[in-house]
Design a protein that fits this description.
9 helices; single chain; 10-stranded mixed sheet; 10 strands; Rossmann fold; alpha/beta
C-alpha cells in the first residue's frame, strides 16, 4: 500500500506553509496527502473553554479550514484529514511511521534566516521512523524554481548514505531538479592512520582523490537508477555543517541524515542536522538512516 505524505497543522502560519509545501510535493509524486492535528482536551477554569466534544469540534473545524485552500488549489489531490487525540510529539511521531514523509512548519527567525525548533519539533525529528521535512514560515513556491538544486550531504560508504541519496534523487526526479551531492572531509588525527587506511589512501592518490572516489562510488547506483537526473559532485575540505550551509543559497531543499539508532541518552538529531536546521534558508529534510 502506498503511504501518504502527512502534514501536521496547528492553525499557525508556519504550519500552513508546511501544509502548502506538502500538498505540492504530493502532487509531484502522485501521492495522497494526509493532514493531521494533534488534540488533547484542555480544561480551563478561568474561561469558557468548552467541554471535550466542543473542543474536538473546534479542532475539526480548524483543520477543515486549513485544508480548504489546499483542495481548492489542487482539485485532483486526494486529501484525508484526521484530528488525533494525544500530545503533539507522540502523535506526530506515530503519524510519521505511517507516512512517506512528515512535513512540519517552523518559525523563521526575525533577524537571521533559519528555523526555530521547539521541543515538539526536536522530539519528532529525533524519533520519527520516516523523513521529516521542516518548512520555514514564509516559504514560497517560487523558491522551487528551475535552477535551484536538491542538496544532499553524503558521508561514509554506499550503505551509510543510501537512504539520503534515495530521497534526494526521488525528489529531484519529481521536480526535474539537479542533485548536488556534498561530501565534506577533514584531516584525520595522526593516530587514525592505520596500515590499511594508508594503503587505501596511497592507492587513491591522496586524501582528496580518495574522498572523490568514495562520493562517486556512493552515487553510482543512484545515477543508474535515475539516469535523467543531473548530478553535481561537490567535495570540499571543512566541517560537514559548514560546507552544506555554504551551498544552501542555491538549494530548493537540503537533505541531511540522522542516526536512527537510539543511544543511552535517547534519540538524537545529530550536530550536522541540528546546524543545518537552524541556519539553512530553505526547507530541510532529515532522513533517518542506520
Amino acid at each position: 500500500m502506498t503511504r501518504p505524505i502527512t502534514a501536521g497543522v496547528d492553525g499557525s502560519q508556519e504550519s500552513l506553509a508546511g501544509l502548502a509545501w506538502a500538498a505540492r510535493e504530493a502532487v509531484r509524486r502522485g501521492l495522497a496527502l494526509r493532514v493531521v492535528h494533534a488534540w488533547r482536551f484542555q480544561p480551563h477554569d478561568a474561561i469558557d473553554a468548552g467541554d471535550p466534544d466542543t473542543q474536538a469540534q473546534w479542532a475539526r473545524e480548524g483543520l477543515a479550514e486549513a485544508t480548504r485552500s489546499v483542495t481548492e488549489r489542487h482539485p485532483g489531490l486526494e486529501v484525508a484529514t484526521d484530528v488525533l487525540d494525544g500530545g503533539p510529539a507522540e502523535t506526530l511521531t506515530a503519524a510519521a511511521a505511517e507516512s512517506e514523509m512528515l512535513v512540519l512548519g517552523s518559525r523563521g527567525r526575525p533577524a537571521v534566516v533559519g528555523f526555530l525548533l521547539g521541543s515538539v519539533g526536536q522530539q519528532v525529528i529525533a524519533g520519527a521512523a520516516s523523513t521529516v521535512v521542516l518548512v520555514r514560515s514564509g516559504d514560497q513556491p517560487s523558491a522551487e524554481a528551475a535552477g535551484r538544486e536538491i542538496v544532499v550531504g553524503q558521508h561514509g560508504d554506499e550503505e551509510d548514505s543510501a537512504a539520503l541519496l534515495r530521497f534526494a534523487f526521488e525528489t529531484a526526479a519529481a521536480r526535474g531538479a539537479t542533485v548536488r551531492a556534498v561530501r565534506a572531509w577533514t584531516l584525520p588525527p595522526l593516530f587514525a592512520y592505520s596500515p590499511g587506511s594508508l594503503k587505501l589512501l596511497d592507492e587513491a592518490g591522496g586524501l582528496e582523490p580518495y574522498e572523490k572516489k568514495a562520493l562517486g562510488d556512493a552515487l553510482r547506483p543512484w545515477r543508474e537508477r535515475f539516469p535523467d537526473v543531473h548530478v553535481v559532485e561537490h567535495v570540499e575540505m571543512g566541517s560537514a555543517g559548514q560546507v552544506l550551509l555554504s551551498v544552501s543559497g542555491r538549494a530548493q531543499l537540503m537533505v541531511v541524515g540522522r542516526r536512527a539508532r537510539r543511544t543511552a541518552v535517547g534519540a538524537r538529531i545529530g550536530s550536522v542536522a541540528h546546524g543545518v536546521l537552524h541556519h539553512a534558508d530553505c526547507p530541510v529534510a532529515v532522513v533517518p538512516h542506520n
